[in-house]
């Protein structure tokens, strides 16, 4: 199961990070600041946006994504609907990830940061989580688990 987790992490993680760079850039935030913010999750306030902290932020981002992918890969063979309907399942997983990230993790880690409240902000977050993260993960899982050597259903 390592190969689909690595593949899903690289694809969904890269798409999500590029999306974060794009949407943050539209709001005037450079990529280094995005990665600094990501690094601040587990490490607290990062004093400057340096290349070192950008690498840490990138590693944190892909580490979180690997956990998201691994969770789906472990659930998929136990829930055949996830494999039969990867687009719908990926969309649903994206919504679940968005709810967890923006309504549980962020408020616990950054209690003073406002929650998503504009249609634009919510739409770009859902686009990223559903289309760029959930669907690729679900399609990779469906392809992996449907192979004859791994078929369980």
TrEMBL record:
Transmembrane segments annotated in the record for this chain: 52-75, 87-105, 125-145
Taxonomic lineage: Bacteria, Pseudomonadati, Pseudomonadota, Alphaproteobacteria, Sphingomonadales
Natural source organism: Edaphosphingomonas laterariae
Top-level taxon in the UniProt lineage: Bacteria
Keywords: Membrane, Transmembrane, Transmembrane helix
Listed name of the protein: DUF1440 domain-containing protein
């Amino acid at each position: 199961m390592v190969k689909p987790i690595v593949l899903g992490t690289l694809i969904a993680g890269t798409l999500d990070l590029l999306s974060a760079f794009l949407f943050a850039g539209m709001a005037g935030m450079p990529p280094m600041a995005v990665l600094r913010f990501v690094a601040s999750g587990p490490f607290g306030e990062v004093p400057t946006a340096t290349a070192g902290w950008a690498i840490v932020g990138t590693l944190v981002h892909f580490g979180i994504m690997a956990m998201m992918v691994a969770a789906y890969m472990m659930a998929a063979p136990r829930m055949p609907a996830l494999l039969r309907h990867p687009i719908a399942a990926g969309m649903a997983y994206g919504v679940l990830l968005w709810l967890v990230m923006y309504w549980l993790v962020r408020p616990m880690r950054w209690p003073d940061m406002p929650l998503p409240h504009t249609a634009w902000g919510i739409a770009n977050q859902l686009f990223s989580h559903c289309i760029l993260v959930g669907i690729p993960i679900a399609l990779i899982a469906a392809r992996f688990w449907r192979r004859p050597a791994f078929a369980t259903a």
